């Protein structure tokens, strides 16, 4: 018989695995171009993480936003989220494939997508609490004949942990935040039991559309007592009220399909158009259009369809476009060179200590999750 210590260790490991299994979006694919999302497994521990299209967030435990936080800013783009510093370009009417690294089968629930117009200044600096979201896609209950039913999340898993959403062709050109979300309902039969997993991305929509739909602020999308938030999936079901506002005119729920990755692409900064994408795997190069600055790291991605649910995107160190400074002659005795080395060593030690502290905090959260 295993000892109490062995049982406790197994419980801790199982709990940690459960936390890690929730998943997050690793990248988005637009017409074969793969743009990296915010990597919660590495970016929080970098002094200078690469510029990507995904918003930053502090959910390093792959955790969720609970209904009692629906009125807080955490529900907008996840916990302590901050603007992505880059964006991707997509034509109205085209589709975006949103790739999760994994999603647990037990976490049944709807998949929902929104857009919010950032205005002419772009999404890199917009106040997230001022964003007004309108719904462009939703898939809730697909088959409720046998509990717990088949849901949008199950369709996502069947599609290689990816979700295909179409940008409505009638949407006016501009800068938008794409808010993608899964709501897990496996504990939603109890108050505060639903689990929201929002993920945000900056996009620039092009085309000839003219519609500018009205939206709802992120903190007003849901309430804890909404019929689709407080819901029992462990029964025979004929319908499910997807939470949030109604779909806008022109919204289309497209047939789910996997998107092949042909190239890796760098996030675009500023208000200019898109540079040419580079073939995968590739290094960051200067953009063809001089007004565009591309500073994101390149993500190593497969050249086949995105089907792996257990592999994680691998990042390489971000490159810069600045020229290396001219070499200078060290001061007599080499003091300047030694001083620079000492400063570099101190910075490296501080960064290592910060990473260790972050990992320790993450471990503490995983253990606390089991209590």
Automatic annotation (TrEMBL):
GO cellular component: extracellular region
Reaction catalyzed: [(1->4)-beta-D-glucosyl]n+m + reduced acceptor + O2 = 4-dehydro-beta-D-glucosyl-[(1->4)-beta-D-glucosyl]n-1 + [(1->4)-beta-D-glucosyl]m + acceptor + H2O
Major site of localization recorded for this protein: secreted
CDD domains: LPMO_AA9 (cd21175)
Protein EC: 1.14.99.56
Cofactor: Cu(2+)
Annotated GO MF terms: metal ion binding; monooxygenase activity
Record GO biological process: cellulose catabolic process
Name of the protein in its database record: lytic cellulose monooxygenase (C4-dehydrogenating)
Top-level EC class as recorded in UniProt: oxidoreductase
Native organism: Sordaria macrospora (strain ATCC MYA-333 / DSM 997 / K(L3346) / K-hell)
Leader sequence segment: 1-21
Keywords for the protein's UniProt record, in alphabetical order: Carbohydrate metabolism, Cellulose degradation, Copper, Disulfide bond, Metal-binding, Monooxygenase, Oxidoreductase, Polysaccharide degradation, Secreted, Signal
Pfam families on file: AA9
Annotated ranges, domain Auxiliary Activity family 9 catalytic: 22-240
Compartments it resides in: Secreted
Family assignment from sequence similarity: Belongs to the polysaccharide monooxygenase AA9 family.
């Amino acid at each position: 018989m295993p000892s109490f210590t062995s049982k406790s260790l197994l419980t801790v490991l199982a709990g940690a695995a459960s936390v890690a299994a929730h998943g997050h979006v690793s990248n988005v694919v637009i017409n074969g171009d793969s743009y990296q999302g915010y990597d919660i497994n590495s970016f929080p521990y970098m002094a200078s993480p690469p510029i990507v299209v995904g918003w930053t967030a502090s959910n390093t435990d792959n955790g969720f936003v609970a209904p009692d936080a629906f009125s807080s800013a955490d529900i907008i783009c996840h916990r302590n989220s901050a603007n992505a510093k880059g964006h991707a370009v997509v034509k109205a009417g085209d589709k975006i494939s949103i790739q999760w690294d994994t999603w647990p089968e037990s976490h049944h629930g709807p998949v929902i997508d929104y857009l919010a117009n950032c205005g002419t200044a772009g999404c890199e600096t917009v106040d997230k609490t001022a964003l007004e979201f309108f719904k462009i896609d939703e898939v809730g209950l697909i088959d409720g004949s046998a509990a717990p039913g088949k849901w949008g999340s199950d369709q996502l898993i069947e599609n290689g942990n990816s979700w295909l959403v179409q940008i409505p062709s009638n949407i006016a050109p501009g800068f938008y935040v794409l808010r993608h979300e899964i709501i897990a309902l496996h504990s939603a039969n109890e108050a505060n039991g639903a689990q929201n997993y929002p993920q945000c991305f900056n996009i620039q929509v092009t085309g000839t559309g003219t519609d500018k739909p009205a939206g709802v602020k992120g903190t007003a999308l849901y309430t804890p007592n909404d019929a689709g938030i407080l819901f029992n999936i462990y029964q025979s079901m004929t319908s499910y009220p997807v939470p949030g506002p109604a779909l806008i005119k022109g919204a289309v729920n497209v047939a789910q399909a996997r998107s092949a990755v042909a190239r890796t692409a760098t996030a675009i900064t500023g208000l200019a158009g898109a540079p040419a994408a580079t073939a995968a795997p590739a290094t960051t190069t200067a953009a063809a259009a001089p007004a565009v600055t591309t500073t994101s790291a390149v993500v190593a991605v497969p050249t086949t369809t995105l089907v792996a649910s257990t592999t994680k995107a691998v990042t390489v160190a971000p490159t810069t476009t600045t020229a290396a400074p001219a070499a200078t002659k060290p001061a007599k005795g080499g003091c300047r060179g030694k001083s620079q080395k000492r400063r570099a060593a101190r910075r490296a030690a501080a960064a290592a200590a910060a990473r260790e502290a972050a990992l320790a905090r993450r471990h503490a959260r995983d253990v606390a999750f089991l209590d």
